Amino acid sequence: MLITTEGFIxxxxxxxxxxxxxxxxxxxxGKITAIAKGARRPKSNLLAGIQPFCYSEFVLYKxxxxxxxxxxxxxxxxxxxxxxxxxxxxxxxxxxxxxxxxTEGQTNHRLFNLFGKTxxxxxxxxxxxxxxxxxxxxKLMNYLGYKPQLMSCVNCDSKETTAWKFSATEGGLLCSSxxxxxxxxxxxxxxxxxxxxxxxxxxxxEVQKLKISDHLNEELKKILKQYILTHTNKYDFKSLExxxxx
Length: 246
Ligand SMILES: [Zn+2]
Known about the structure:
Elements: E1 2-15, E2 19-26, E3 30-36, E4 55-62, E5 67-76, H1 79-82, H2 85-101, H3 109-123, H4 129-143, E6 149-153, E7 164-167, E8 172-174, E9 186-188, H5 190-201, H6 214-232, H7 238-245
Parallel strand pairs: 3-5, 6-8
Antiparallel strand pairs: 1-2, 1-4, 2-3, 4-5, 7-8, 7-9
Helix pairs in contact: 2-3, 2-4, 2-7, 3-4, 4-6, 5-6
Bound molecules: zinc ion.
Protein name: DNA repair protein RecO
GO biological process, one term: DNA recombination
Keywords: DNA damage, DNA recombination, DNA repair
């Protein structure tokens, strides 16, 4: 069976003399593994479209265990990401995160669109990286089915509290009367709650110029990291740490 779909290259590994094994996040088939035969021959017409991050149009043959790339045409190679180590590292973080949280063969159109928009944003020079990355993380959780409850207490629905905490296991805010519902809940400031709501509601292209303090970014980053870890249990955040040191 042949399918035609757009997709992003998440991973590209050498295989044998001239082949490549690809992990592709496709629009129509979700995350898939595909072999690109002869792709590493200098004159291969697959070569351009299968580099990491590449957004390409693929014609894929679905075999028993794996797809085979029969044609591919690069639509966007994200060149600016490749020449700037900082952007490259953040893009690698997003790629790893998507790879870790998606299931082979399961489509997720909202995540696919978000991933594409975010890579296109990271290509631009006049952007604020931190709000973009935080927005990506919180939207990713939403699209995986873990939309955090940020308007009221997740335990008693109260909108009033002396101070909020965020419970990763309960998936939202806890008011001061409900702290005992999760002993590992983390303090969260009112400003961070407002920022999280903003990032969740707005399209990611609308947060590209948003200025947030390092302090606020750190606060939300810690909470989202805990939230992602609790529900995906697969990701170690090493590439994010590398990106932040640059
Ligand atoms: Zn409560």
